[in-house]
Specification:
single chain; mainly alpha
Length: 81
């Protein structure tokens, strides 16, 4: 779980979906990161459908109704995990 958390944290923090950094604290996205990790651990990400499903979940979780990015960005981030 720790390795998954670190990979997800590195990618979400680098992406900074809500553009909070550098003024936000380093744990700004920790709740979202934990939720993504839980979803990854309980998913079979070997199928493309599951990867797409996770990318939609990440978009909903990290970008909410603001939708600053399109679905290709969420898929790009998801494939890094």
């Amino acid at each position: 779980m720790e390795i998954v958390y670190e990979v997800v944290k590195d990618n979400i923090d680098s992406w900074d979906p809500m553009r909070f950094f550098p003024s936000a604290p380093p744990d700004e996205y920790d709740w979202e990161i934990q939720e993504i990790c839980n979803k990854i651990i309980h998913s079979d990400l070997l199928s493309e459908d599951k990867v797409i499903e996770l990318s939609v979940y990440i978009g909903d979780l990290c970008d909410g109704s603001d939708r600053l990015y399109d679905s290709t960005k969420y898929l790009e981030i998801t494939k890094k995990f």
